[in-house]
Sequence to fold (114 residues):
Amino acid sequence: MALRPSEDALNALRDFTQRIHALDRTAPAVQELVVRVGEREERLALSEPVVQALVEALRVFHDPRDKGRCDFCGGPLDDNFLCRDCGAFSGVFGQLLAERAGGYTPPEELPPAP
Fold:
């Protein structure tokens, strides 16, 4: 039976805390995290190493859908470096795409070196 996404997240959080705590079983719990999924409530005791690992994991996570921010308005970019808010191409790659799409003609090639 497949788990609901919320249950899957709860299980992943519980597994993460247990995996990190197993590396330093003598570390005392310094915080408690209460997670409620529907009628089910789970309390997770967090030692300092678990807190540090959780904070670091959350800070370094990068969503692969995040392509950066527009140089002009700060809006989100799509896969083609086009701003979803203002419609401008952004960054070096966005500029290259805009030039190519607009019929940009590259400069003449340099003559071969003597």
